[in-house]
Amino acid sequence: MKSSYIKSIMILALVAFCDKALAQEIVELPLSKSNKVVIELMFRNGSICDPQGKEGLTALTASVVAQGGTGTMSASDIKDKIYPWAADYHGSSDKEVSIFTFEVPADFLQDFYPIVSGLILNPSFKEEDFSRVKSNHQNYVDQLIRQSSDEEYGKKFLEDMLFRGTNYQHMVSGTSEGVRSITLEDVKKHYSTFFTRNNLSIGIAGKYPEGFAQKMKADFQKLPAGTPPVPAPGKAKMPEGINVEIVAKENALGSAISAGFPLSITRSNDEFAALMVANSWLGEHRKSYSRLYQKIREARSMNYGDYTYIEWYDNGGSNMLPPYGTPRSSNYFSIWIRPVQTAKGLKDQYEELKHINIGHAHFALRMTLKEMDELIKNGMNQDEFEKTREFLRSYSKLYIQSLDKQLGFLMDSRFYGRKDWIKELDALLAKLTLNDVNTAIRKHWQTKNLNVVIITDKSEAEPLAQSLKNNSPSPMSYSNDLKSTLPAEILNEDKLVESYPMPVKQVNIIDSESTFRKSGMSDSKGVLKIQK
Amino acid sequence: MFLLACIFASSAICFGHSDAESAEKILPYPIHQKKMANGLNVVTVPFDSPGLAAFYIVVRAGSRDEIEPGKSGFAHFFEHMMFRGTEKYPNDKYSEILKSTGASANANTSLDRTLYHMTGSSDKLEIMFDLESDRFMNLKYSVQDFKTEAGAVKGEYTKNSANPYTVLYEKVLETAFDKHTYKHTTMGFFEDIVDMPNQYDYSIEFFKRFYRPEYSTVIVVGDVTPEQVNALSEKYFSKWEPGTYKTVVEAEPEQKGTRYTHLKRQGFPPYLQLNYKGPAFSDKEIDMPALDVLNSILFSEKSDLYKKLVLNEQKCRFVGGGAQDSRDPFLIMLRSSLKKTDDLQYVKDEMVAALEKAKTTPVDPQVLKDTKMHLKYSFAMHIDNPTAIAESLSAYTWLTGDPESLNRLYAMYDKVTAEDLMMVAKKYFVPEKLTIATISPNDSESIK
Fold first, then answer.
1. Is A148–B121 a contact, with Cβ atoms under 8 angstroms apart?
2. CB 3.0 to 4.6 Å from A98: which of A30, A93, A334, B388, for a disulfide?
3. Which domains, from first to last, does chain A contain?
């Protein structure tokens, strides 16, 4: 980790990223009939800019700025001032961008704007604001990530596994040791170095007066000069074989599964549209008609849903439609199998399952890989292609229903070197052929090299690890009641799935308490058991 | 076909600085309503969103209506079953047609209602009517479908259970309520969920009871006209037969003392939740509007308490909460996430002190005015697309049966006085109606 990071810093003068960040590019979306104004300030930095040992610094810096005061107003003063208007704002970071979003009724734009410019141009950086915000970040990386959603936990840990040894590995929020080591001086210095007028894009939408955008552009010229030394984004290394990390925790009712491998294309590539069609057919987010959902949830009721992704989908547990604000140039394909039952849970529920050794995780993984293999081998057919493409041509328009989303997707478009991704996507989809999609599937998807994370109960970890390591058959364990109603077609398919070849190269069992403690996985104390 | 490229929603809400308390309706678009002969209410709100429409159906049945023992969680389970198809459109056909609409579609269930929603191309509106009317009138599923879907519900419970707040919420309801069906969450008791596969016959009864026109409201918002929506409603829903069932929910006896519940959780921040018994939602009585105003004054980020505990003393990470709108009296939930377990008593005392002060000290007139303005602008900022408007209308439809309650509630906010705030503080924030819930690493907490 350390060596690659230093290498990245050394070659930063050569990387092209700052060239792509057009200094103070303005995206305007004037809507005279709107009753509000949305402002988005996007800085091209992100957690890839966190120094080693201070993981979380960029996110904490954005939060301290947004949750602090201005040169003339404290955080408390601001809350008083904007309360009647119901104005709102927040700052957040992702891997490669930090974004400040402001929303205010058009009636109060002129009164609100000094707060916008004051927070960004003259943040107060008070010790009390810093300590409050840092404490919350610390709480997230120390406790909440492990204790709030096993699914979100698994996704973050999959990124840790995929990008191990790179600046993309650590959570945007940082690591326990990283956040702990950050001082107010670090934040101030990071802000002046990485939040400059040369890596800022400005977006404004809604009902704002003529000339307002230009005034903003002129005002933000007062940000520090200088080109931020943004390192090249880390790339995931293609795993060799199937590698599994089982994170064992107390009292987990289910096994939450995430899996993935690197992907070389993003929205920047026209080919991405072809892969969107394949992905939608296989595992469109929260859609009942995709293949994995039909097979795992609908036919077998193993869990709440099963989806696939060809780019990061922030907060997938809450968002029904793709969010904006997390554009990335290092990409990966991922599978999200929502929590399935553990052996302990099934034994408690059904007398007839007292003998089982593992729950449903191994079977669910096999089923997923079998479906993917068949898609890669056979491709989609013309009918599936046409229907899925038409779905996406309508559905993608729904991504931008509200004003903030319209602006957000436009801003993200610029990150990918596009003008308006939603419009361009439609044009790309319109000219796609079935062959384009099947070619993209074969080119970008495979199932032999895969990283897998399973968050599960301590009681499940060891037997599951053995089953995976030994490529043991993993028969589906239904209750007698359910099994008696299932058609032969499903039970016969189960027979094929339970022994479907899934050669696992390595399985590690990891103590939940050791995850996200510090950068890299050098903390061997966390690895409870290594299976080779 | 697909949506027009330009779906830039617009809204023309404009409160002047001085007329924030005017009697104008909060929703600046007319709500067209037509009650069909079978009792189905059809609501249309035309909105400037070229090519786009939100199609919602509210069924006024939720976990409140699960009155038989052993049947908790059934309204939610039934919501799942509604996706299992009919003779005309079996599951796979339904999915295929739904996919062809390119819509964002789903459903969810809560205390008092079940909500089915689709947002998509307005030129697919007839397909939406066809699909929805068919399953609402002709749902048909096999025993196998039924038993299989029960596993998905268990999967939903399983994923939710990872969150300590969800676990505590279950405990709060079970502790605070003795008789009323609000005693169980919408997910239901886990033992009832495990037993769901055995309840096929009850599911048929449930459908007959509640999936009836008199329990339902169709809401369409967007690039549509009332004439178009009413005509489609007549075409597709007029044969829907009304039923006769009425839920009789046992009233909750008056609570006569403070109750306690606790969740031991290592590695999780200490948490305090004060749960006072509140009123049912009403757009005619002043109590709920007054509580909304009071809770914003006492517990929003602008409040003195928030500034003291979160910004200045930094003993808490978060302070907030309020009354949940519901058909029957539910809870006013006041929450705080703390840094130290040792401060649980202190934070509880501070929250109660703020409530006690509110009983006797009239609120500053400017703060009252600012809060009313805040509530109105919060709403106005939110409704810039058909989905958001349909969501809001749905909420008031399930509460009172009439979406105009939205406008009436915001008109009520204008009428709230400083005396009303003291009145509701005295009436609801009393220790006899309180359930104290905590999370900490300890086996128990002894909060006084």
1. no
2. A93
3. 2-222 (3.30.830.10), 242-531 (3.30.830.10)
